[in-house]
Structures are given as C-alpha cells and as structure tokens.
C-alpha cells in the first residue's frame, strides 16, 4: 500500500470534515483485553480438540498474549479465569505479566465447573453451596488485590431446565445477597461487571437472563457495579447497540465481551459474521463520547473492551490477532462518522440521509489509516503477517499436546 493511498484517504476525510488528528489519537488510545482462556484448548460441548503448542499453564498463556500485544500494540492486559488460572503465587503471576509488558486485567470467578454447582451456585437451594460460591467470589477479590486488577467479570451459569425446578423469586434474592456480600468487599477502585445471558447451560430460565436484570442488580448494589455486554448472549434479533446506548446513558455500561455469533453464544472470531453490528456499537459509543453531560463522557472513557472467544478449530494466537484487528478496523470506521451530519439529517427527518451518513463511514477502506498509525507507533504495518513470519509459532510446538484447557 502506497503513501498515495493514505494521501487520497486524508483528502477524502478532510472534505467530509473529519479531524484525522483526533481519529488517530483515539485509535492509538484503544485498548482491547484478551482472555487467558482464548489461548488454551477449547471446544464445543461435543469435543475439546487438543492442539500442539498450546500453553501448559497460566504463565505460558501470558507469554502467548504478549505476542498478540507485540504485533498489534493493542492488548496490554489479559483477563484471567479462576480456577482455570489458579496458581500458588499470584504476585509471581503478576510479575511475570509485568516482565512481558502486560498487566493482569479482569478476574473471572468460575462458578460453573464444580460438581456442587450442578443445580446452581449462588442461587442453589442449599445454603452450604451458596456459602461456598460466595467464598469463591471473595477469594477472587483477594486475588485481584495481589494481581492489581480492578474489574471482575461476573457470569453465573445459574438457572433451571424445567418449570418448578427452582423458586425463581427466591433465587433472585439469593443472587442479590451474594452480589451484595462481594460488593462490600471491594476496594474503592474495583468494579463488578455483571454479565447476563439468556440461555445455556440452563435452558428454561437463567437467573440473570438479560441486560435489564443485570442493570437491576447493578443499581441495587451501587456505582461500582455495572453491566457487561457479551455480544453472543442475546436472543436472536436483539438490537445490541440499543442496549449499549441505553446503558451508557444510565452510566452503567461497564464493558464488553466481544465475540461473533451466527446462532447463539458461538464465541467465534470477533467481527467474522457481523462486522456491521460491531461498527454500530462503536457508533453509539462515539456518540455518547460527545455527550454534553461530562459524567456520561467520563463513564464512556471507562468502558472495558474485552474479548471473549475460544477457538475450537483454528490456531489460537493468529485467531486472537484476527479478532483484535477486526475490532480495531470497525472502531476506525466508526471514527469516520460525521455525527453533525447524522444529527442534521435526523433533525430534518431525512431518514435516508441520516442512515446514509452513518453507513458511508462503514464503506471506507481504513487500511491506509491503520497502516499510517502503525508506522507512527513503530508497529508492523501488517501485524498478522509479522506474527506468522516470526519464529514463535514454531518454537511453541515444543510444548507438545495436552496443554491447558477449560
Ligand atoms: C459464558 C461466558 C462467560 C464465561 C466465559 C468463558 O458463556 O461468556 O463470560 O466466563 O464465557
Ligand atoms: Mn462472556
Ligand atoms: Mn459466553
């Protein structure tokens, strides 16, 4: 790609009234957290395929994540899942991350793989199991102190498969009790990001089934509790960007778990099936980022962009790089929206004009822009190519098969 391509791009955007200096600085400030579990073996409920070269422990997961950050410059932190990433010394794990130029990000308590949790964890009818689940949440707060993490991504598999199996209202109150106890243990910088999901593994009812329920708990708890939107957790046809806009306006959008889906919680490479949805999510975010209300702007700045994908058939590191680059691409496109133009058309009730002003931005090729910022940041112009050309992929084969899996 030539400098000519960038010169043409620059001219086009200047004519549209886009401030490229601001676009570039926003692009450079974008941080996307990758999940430790995206580097390990994973699968569907039918099979976990064992790959050669997969990390054998949380330390090696961080090493792989560092490769993604090295070529993209976008991923300085890594989310961990406990007990998948259980270690004896979390201070040591933190130092390992720091040596690699990384930080440990969100802590994800795991309340879905212990035999005791078959019929629920924090909403189990048995008080001893509820206690055990709450203790795990509190243990995660202690781990966060050691890893210097501030965010908790809280997803509960709790729910029922059949009518009558559980008392829905009692379970609602047990959920609040558990969340309250955890909330009380937070330090002032910590946040609880409450995730919801309409289905799976419970298929009749899920205790936190949608954003409204997550929002309800967040408001009951206080300002350090917010909602986490996992893009794959909705019923078909849900307008995710509407949910995003609504939550931002209430200053309760804490973060995302980005992934792509065709049918349900497919956890596929971000933007592979629905790039326009991702673009429209960023459109809403950038719109709120210009709000006259400083509190809303401030809340938008704090949104955590996390990836939640686990690759079943594709090689882990390149797949993660693809996800991250797809997020960056859609963010770059959304940065080309001329909001004044959209607003002006909308205020004239020009439906097609307003839609056109949004879509136009999506249709630009942002490759010259991304290449330009990577050059300015001393990053490889083509991160995927740079990773594939490195020795790392071959080196890790010596780890053999049978690495960490969920
Ligand atoms: C549940 C979920 C949640 C888990 C992750 C592994 O479907 O999205 O965020 O922690 O997957
Ligand atoms: Mn998730
Ligand atoms: Mn999920």
UniProtKB/TrEMBL annotation:
<keyword id="KW-0464">Manganese</keyword>
<dbReference type="GO" id="GO:0008740">
    <property type="term" value="F:L-rhamnose isomerase activity"/>
</dbReference>
<feature type="domain" description="Xylose isomerase-like TIM barrel">
    <location>
        <begin position="90"/>
        <end position="267"/>
    </location>
</feature>
<dbReference type="InterPro" id="IPR013022">
    <property type="entry name" value="Xyl_isomerase-like_TIM-brl"/>
</dbReference>
<dbReference type="InterPro" id="IPR036237">
    <property type="entry name" value="Xyl_isomerase-like_sf"/>
</dbReference>
<protein>
    <submittedName>
        <fullName>L-rhamnose isomerase</fullName>
        <ecNumber>5.3.1.14</ecNumber>
    </submittedName>
</protein>
<keyword id="KW-0479">Metal-binding</keyword>
<dbReference type="Pfam" id="PF01261">
    <property type="entry name" value="AP_endonuc_2"/>
</dbReference>
<keyword id="KW-0413">Isomerase</keyword>
<dbReference type="InterPro" id="IPR013457">
    <property type="entry name" value="Rhamnose_iso-rel"/>
</dbReference>
<dbReference type="InterPro" id="IPR050337">
    <property type="entry name" value="L-rhamnose_isomerase"/>
</dbReference>
